[in-house]
């Protein structure tokens, strides 16, 4: 469960987050949708405990992202905006390293790593150094690394960027499996169709503010249209007009 309450964050003159509040429930997929620069990554970075908000609060499974960052990290799997793989390590070493950070050892670590490599279809690249990986290869190894400790809550920052259609399908399937197993999944995107294809709940963010949130049906009703893309455009335009 993720709870975000009244988050504010500025970078110099830029108010990246301006009173952002939403929740993302267990066993559901929540999409954080917004144009470039809307504040999605800033929100996810605060939740991932790599950045502090100026004010407001964020909790993951009841743990505060500022004061209980270790507990947050233990229950969280994060796919960051850039994969952040160690390029001198092989794919397997990258995955195992994160497993070790989460306390996995010996056969438990090996089995978890093997299962991830098989599930993601990356056995051919897992023994190669990450330097030179394609975008899709990087993403799959980064995803294996994020999920190796079977986290209860998963955050994915624009996970389908640069992926081919097969890789996108595989990713969607995995996200649905995480939901089926009771995980809370929060992912960001600037593509309405992608969010519509997967999400139970949608949070639309524009200029650092939440401008609409709810199930797809609730968002359509609130914005008076039958088309989710049109709803997104209307919500974002309203935020621009108000600015
Ligand atoms: N470290 C930083 N220093 C200065 N400005 C920043 C920093 N991080 C984010 N910003 C600014 O804050 C605003 C929100 O950025 P953020 O990365 O959260 O947007 P986003 O919705 O993830 O966009 P995108 O879809 O392009 O990745 C932008 O105006 C961005 O330029």
TrEMBL record:
The lineage of its organism: Bacteria, Pseudomonadati, Pseudomonadota, Gammaproteobacteria, Steroidobacterales. Keywords: ATP-binding, Nodulation, Nucleotide-binding, Transport. This is Sodium transport system ATP-binding protein. It holds the Pfam family ABC_tran. It comes from the Bacteria. GO terms for molecular function: ATP binding; ATP hydrolysis activity. Residues 2-232 form the ABC transporter domain. SMART domains: AAA (SM00382). Belongs to the ABC transporter superfamily. SUPFAM superfamilies: P-loop containing nucleoside triphosphate hydrolases.
């Amino acid at each position: 469960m993720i709870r975000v309450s009244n988050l504010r964050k500025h970078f110099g003159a830029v108010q990246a987050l301006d009173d952002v509040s939403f929740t993302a429930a267990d066993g559901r997929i929540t999409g954080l949708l917004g144009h470039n620069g809307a504040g999605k990554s800033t929100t996810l970075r605060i939740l991932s405990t790599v950045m502090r908000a100026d004010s407001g609060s964020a909790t993951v499974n009841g743990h505060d992202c500022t004061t209980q960052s270790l507990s947050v990290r233990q229950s969280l799997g994060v796919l960051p905006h850039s994969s952040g793989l160690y390029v001198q390590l092989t794919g397997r070493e990258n995955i195992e390293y994160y497993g070790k950070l989460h306390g996995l050892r010996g056969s438990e670590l090996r089995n978890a790593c093997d299962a991830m490599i098989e599930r993601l279809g990356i056995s051919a690249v897992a023994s190669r150094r990450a330097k030179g990986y394609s975008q899709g290869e990087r993403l799959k190894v980064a995803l294996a690394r994020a999920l190796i400790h079977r986290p209860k809550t998963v955050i994915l920052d624009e996970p389908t960027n640069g992926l081919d259609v097969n890789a996108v399908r595989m990713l969607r399937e995995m996200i649905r499996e995480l939901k089926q197993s009771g995980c809370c999944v929060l992912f960001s995107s600037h593509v309405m169709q992608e969010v519509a294809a997967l999400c139970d709940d949608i949070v639309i963010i524009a200029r650092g503010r939440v401008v609409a949130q709810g199930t797809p049906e609730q968002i359509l009703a609130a914005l008076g249209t039958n088309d989710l893309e049109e709803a997104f455009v209307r919500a974002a335009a309203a935020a621009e007009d108000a600015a």
